[in-house]
Design goal:
Elements lengths: L1 E4 L12 H9 L6 H8 L3 H13 L3 E4 L8 H15 L3 H11 L12 H9 L5 H17 L3
Helix pairs in contact: 1-2, 1-3, 4-7, 6-7
């Protein structure tokens, strides 16, 4: 997901804490959540909480990026790594998750890769396997510049 800052009309006064200001400073519509998280020095949980507050205050807005779809190689890597975590049901889980996100299998926008991985990881029964799956997929996302 991508966000951009929104200018407030003159005269509107809003109270912000230090974390909100820090996050606002690094938000750029060309940076994905992983980049923003790293630059702001926030874990995903904290990032989500503060993004939610900034959205409610209408200081930022979601940006729909129409870009490339996930490659067949990325999807093959996803299936391989998920197969290592849960076995032969991997493809079915991927297809169900993609459908649940209201997407088509070969038309998954690149900017939704992290969301897809997160949704799939929640379905992996063992926590150790979830963590390993996420770590591996984050590295693959970095390699693919997602």
């Amino acid at each position: 997901m991508f966000f951009r800052k929104v200018a407030l009309p003159d005269g509107d006064k809003i109270s912000l804490n230090a974390d909100m200001i820090r996050l606002l400073m690094v938000i750029d519509e060309d940076k994905d959540l992983l980049q923003i998280s790293n630059e702001a020095g926030m874990d995903i949980s904290m990032l989500n909480q503060i993004l939610s507050k900034l959205l409610k205050l209408k200081l930022i807005e979601l940006v729909e990026k129409r870009g490339q779809f996930l490659s067949k190689k990325f999807l093959a890597d996803l299936r391989l790594n998920l197969s290592q975590a849960i076995g032969p049901m991997a493809q079915i889980l991927i297809e169900d998750t993609v459908a649940g996100m209201e997407l088509k299998m070969f038309e998954i926008p690149g900017h939704r890769a992290a969301e897809l991985i997160s949704n799939i990881a929640r379905e992996i029964p063992e926590e150790n396997n979830q963590i390993e799956f996420k770590k591996t997929m984050i590295e693959i996302m970095k390699q693919n510049r997602l």
